[in-house]
Amino acid sequence: MALLLTLLLALGWTWLPAQEETELPASVAPADSLLKTPAPEDSLFYAADSLAYNHALEQIRLYGNTSITYQTFEISSDSLLVDLKNNLAFSQGNTVMRDGDQIILGDDVAYDIDSQTGSLSGGISRMEKSYYTGEEIRKISSDAYDVDNGSFTTCENEEPDFWFTAKKLRIFRGDKIVGKPVVAYVNHLPVFYFPFIVVPLQSGRKPGFLIPQPGYNNIDGKFFRDIAWYYPYKDYADLILSLDLYERTGWRAELQLDYLRRYLLNGSLDAAFQRRSGGSQTFNDWSLQATHHQELGNRATFDANVDFVSNKRIWEGSSDIDESLAQTVTSSLSYRQPLLGSYLNIGASYTEDLINSRGTISLPSASFALPTRPLYELFYKPERSSDAWWSNLNYSYNLRLDHSGSLYSSDRQFMDYVWNNRFAPGDSVWHNFGIKHQLGLSYNWKAFGWLGLQHGARYNEAWFDRDKNGNTLVRGNDYNAYTNANFNIYGIRNFKKGWLKSLRHIVTPNAGISFNPDFSANSRFYSFGGVGLLNSARSANLNLSLDQKWQIKFGKDDRKINDVFSLNSRSSANLLNPSAKPFQTISHTAAFRPGSFSLGNLRFPGTKTKLEGLSLAYSAQFSLSHSPYGVSWDDWKISNQYFSQGLTLTGSAPYQDYFPKAKNRIFDPYQKADSLQFFAQTLSEAESSNTWRIALSHDLSATADLFDPISQSLRLDSSFRLTKNWSVAYGSYFNLKTGEQLSQSIRVSRDLHCWKLELSYTRRNDYWEYKVALFNLALPDALRFQTSDSKSF
Fold first, then answer.
1. Cα separation of 693 and 596, whole Å?
2. pLDDT tens, 538-569?
3. How large is the average pLDDT for residues 4-14?
4. In 3D, which of 128, 68, 124, 71 has the Cα closest to residue 94?
5. 232-238 long-range CB contacts below 8 Å, 24 or more apart?
């Protein structure tokens, strides 16, 4: 190795002022245009306040603010010795060693320049979000270090709350830390012993085994869940292959796959097989869930949603409440293609009733809706819209095709899903096929500048494979006409004094008549999948509605609330009905949505406890129907009542940290400030605000008496930060009609600074489960201890 040519020529005397750096002039070493990337520098650079050169030993001694740099390696110390003959470097006293982005602090470095290996005494270093120390740290390769009598921690305090010690540590930079034997300490108290430990350090996606979850319940006995292997494929896919082992009941294997190719496709796959023993029987069950989205170009897309299970048993004991309570599964395929300014949709779907063993299928189905367009565009297209009266004449067209089947058979053959038709108790299968066209013509205009008028007519024609009389390839039609009129009335009241600044009331009356000829003969046709025809007698329906909205402006900043209160009333009557009471029921819907209001701050008397930024939000809706005939003050003929309301209270309770611990700032003088890390920390602190939240939702349904409801329920969702480190979340669902609590859950969290402890308990119906998890905040996947238990009654 030809080292330091410039140095040897310049050092003709024993003492010379130190040079900032020495390198060949550009004219001596011209750039090689054939090289695509620059080669690493093969020169040694040095800096010092003064130096001494021993010609006989070929050694340079550097004194005062010394440093030497070779490629990406740098050593800084009070004094350095460079052995030019053996290509070695030595430091004395406090030393800072930089290896790329790695900084190591210690004493007495010995470094081999050729092999780029060396050692350091009493060292400490920072890697990713962790710190490690050792009596001696040796660099054994470009990315590996050996540490004798070392320690490791992710705690950023100057005196860490926890750490691991090991006789031997091997650190693979940016990959992992391996140690043996290992003792875990918490506040100088040994709490765990491990024969060896492997701690991943990767911040990205890396293949490897995930941490399993041990536990116990009264049915499965002891178990290990999620014995899993994770594999990422480039930037496109993540794969997890997992195994659950149960002491008494068997095993379960699962494959999970997520994939993404930006702007082209994305999807997921979840396939599971379970072998479960119960009593004298053994069941083999499977499930398959998948989604896929594909961009086909020219705005065409393909989507698939697959959800199949062999039996609902495979979801027994699932922690996912949606899975455990599911009664149906649905799979679908859809293709979407632009056509004539709209979209043609082609698809298929299948739904299985897991309780009643009934299936419904739609294979295939298609729809096309041509949006409303001016009629004159069929004849010519002017450069700009016309203002003539006929420019408001519009047309629309809709097409629906469907092949539907209903399967009430537990022993199904392939043709049962395609076309078979048979009728027998407990073994019925029938299919229907049809096409429906709808053509609409409408004319909308505004009279006198305020009266909105809408007129129109619709024609429907449907083709069926058969009718209820057994005739095949049949067709039918229906048509109707309508006219509507509406207008708005505005009332505004301004207030000069008080909290309320302005109140606006908007009233919208609407009246319309629709006429349907007698199509009772259409009762011979089937109705399925959006393909059907009117089959009622002749009617002329008068439709009346009155919509009212109140909007307010309030406060010093003139805050607005649109539709703070609304009231909608509507009814209809068949004018051709010979009955003396043509009007049907009158329905009303009232909604109160004031939004959220600030309640300021609250301090509890006699204590230092205070709540800041209190905010209250409320919303309610009430609907009912009643007969317009025979109404009296004692009897309003009320029916179909429904009431729902929601109340949310939020706030924050700041806590003072009376004994803050000093952070580890030992590396601050040797590294540049990271603005991204600062903003990330600020954002994290903002997201972990000390928030209190209580949310209540209540709903009930009743007929005549609102205080004797048919059903009534109450949901509670709350979270509290009790202290700086303790937080509790609680949820409950009550059936107020029966007084039964249907489900409840509670989660308690304890922030242990660098660690977090979570305890959760869930109970619903005849099933309960608890989980305990202790994990490191910096490395939550690598340093995690968890267990769980569950029981079914």
1. 13
2. 999 999 999 999 999 988 778 888 899 999 99
3. 33
4. 124
5. 232/205, 232/206, 232/207, 236/260, 236/261, 238/205
Nearest to 266 by CA among 228, 227, 305, 230: 305
Pick from 758, 687, 744, 680: nearest CA to 716: 744
Every domain of the chain and the residues it spans:
1-25+41-115
In the three-class reduction of DSSP (H, G, I as helix; E, B as strand; rest coil), residue 247 is classed as: coil
Strand-pair category, 342-353 with 328-339: antiparallel
CA torsion sign for 377, 382, 383, 384 is negative
- Residue 8, pLDDT > 60, answer no
Judging by beta carbons within 10 Å of its beta carbon (0-12, 13-18, 19+), is residue 212 exposed, middle or buried?
A: middle
At residue 675, the 3 state secondary structure works out as: helix
CB burial of residue 441 (10 Å; 0-12, 13-18, 19+): middle
Q: Which tokens in the block code for residue 367? A: 């729809």
- For residue 545, give the nearest of 563, 566, 571 by alpha carbon: 571
Both tokens of residue 406? 């209903």
Q: Which residues pair with 734 in a beta bridge?
A: 714, 741
H/E element, 677 = helix 675-687
**421 three-class SS:** coil
Rg, the chain, Cα only: 39
- Whether the per-residue pLDDT at 718 is higher than 50: the answer is yes
How many CA within 13 A on the CB side of residue 87?
A: 14
For 416-444, write each residue's pLDDT tens digit.
888 888 877 777 888 999 999 999 999 99
Answer yes or no: is pLDDT of 171 > 60.
Answer: yes
Task: Please give the Cα distance from 742 to 765 (Å, whole number).
Answer: 6
Q: Would you tell me which CATH number, out of the four given (2.60.450.10, 3.30.70.260, 3.30.499.10, 2.70.70.10), belongs to the domain 1-25+41-115? A: 2.60.450.10
Whole-number average pLDDT of the chain: 84
Give me the residue label for tokens 């490791």.
152
